[in-house]
Design brief:
2 domains, five-stranded antiparallel sheet, 49% helix, 21% strand
């Protein structure tokens, strides 16, 4: 149940992150793509207006009659497809001279018609995009006339005349293109977000299952180690009971008994003290100084080395843990796992420096507890 909740919260978190980031990314890409589309449209209209202006200027310079020029221009643009945009020409008074729709010729441009920017400036893609979105005046742009389906986006004069070439853009058509672009981006955004969320969920579950298996293996290994330590501590308890029982037993073989020392000669400050072996908890050496710690916590010094002391002690009761320590079975409180296949001995009383049974001596220590 906890695992299912974790996957659910993970799915929700990934979904929120993906949708939020994707939403802002989508809006940015829509704006960039729309500006690029409008920029192409504007540049195309500018180029067409300039080419027409140059064509008309050349005809005028070559002495072609104005009426003939107007007729030629009218024939070239009349009946053209005005779905996306078109070119027309009017004079400085605003009267239409040439127009794809012949009915517009001779009519004066209404002051409310869209008349975008100065001739030498024109309109850029960002302002045009804002105008299409808001349909309001922005940076010198007039409001759109709702009765028109096209707007003038560029004006270019014809040299040596009072004529002006006007490039129109079909607003409805442009808005349809932009709307379709948004729909496409929205579809890709939703589809991509869904795919990312599902792939993320599957990836999380796959990684989660992998680590769950690893955790199970570690738990099994840890269980085995705990059982092993439990057995060691159980052996330690049995060993202590065995020692206590043997101490109460009268040993008849005096010769065997005399092999090991019952007392050790120690000193404390300026006093010599004869210490009973059964009172020792552990012996350690540091910087060539040998210290004997008793079960009651008292400490005594010895002039003998660990090796000399260990040879006189009963190996049934004492164990050489390492170069610095000799352990008494009575002084061992607990055995815990330490590092890689090593054991740490918890003594009573406690030691200032940890007593570690190395990997090489672990099996010997276990055998000693089972003696």
């Amino acid at each position: 149940m906890k695992k299912d909740k974790l996957y659910l919260f993970t799915l929700l978190a990934i979904s929120v992150i993906v949708f939020v980031i994707g939403y802002f990314s989508m809006n940015y890409l829509i704006k960039v793509s729309t500006n690029r589309f409008l920029e192409i449209q504007i540049e195309s209209s500018k180029r067409e207006a300039r080419e027409f202006s140059t064509l008309v200027s050349l005809q005028i310079e070559n002495g072609v009659d104005r009426e003939t020029v107007i007729n030629n221009i009218q024939k070239s643009i009349e009946g053209t497809n005005i779905e996306s945009g078109f070119i027309c020409m009017f004079d400085w008074s605003g009267v239409e001279i040439c127009h794809p729709n012949p009915q517009k010729i001779g009519k004066k441009t209404n002051p409310n018609e869209s008349y975008v920017r100065p001739i030498d400036d024109g309109i850029n893609s960002e302002d045009f995009y804002d105008l299409l979105k808001n349909k309001k005046e922005q940076g010198g742009l007039r409001e759109f006339n709702s009765d028109r389906n096209s707007e003038i986006i560029y004006l270019y004069p014809v040299d040596n005349t009072d004529w002006i070439i006007a490039a129109h853009a079909n607003i409805d058509k442009l808005e349809k293109h932009i709307h379709q672009l948004k729909v496409n981006f929205l579809f890709v955004y939703l589809l991509t977000s869904l795919v990312i969320i599902l792939l993320s969920l599957f990836t999380v579950r796959f990684i989660g299952n992998y680590y769950e298996k690893e955790l199970e293996l570690r738990n099994e290994k840890l269980t085995d180690e705990v059982l092993s330590l439990s057995k060691l501590n159980s052996d330690l308890s049995n060993f202590k009971n065995k020692i206590a029982s043997e101490e109460k037993t009268i040993i008849s073989d005096k010769e065997e008994k005399s092999i090991y020392k019952n007392r050790l000669l120690t000193y404390k400050k300026d006093k010599l003290i004869s210490l009973k072996v059964e009172e020792i908890a552990f012996i350690n050496t540091e910087n060539t100084a040998t210290t004997i710690t008793c079960l009651n916590g008292k400490k005594y010094n010895s002039n003998s080395s660990l090796e000399e002391l260990f040879t006189g002690l009963d190996p049934m009761l004492f164990f050489r843990a390492n170069r610095q320590n000799i352990l008494s079975a009575k002084g061992i409180l607990e055995i815990v796992k330490y590092g890689n296949n090593q054991l740490k001995i918890v003594t009573n009383p406690t030691t200032e420096v940890s007593i570690i049974i190395s990997k090489n001596k672990t099996s010997e220590f276990k055998k000693w507890l089972n003696t």
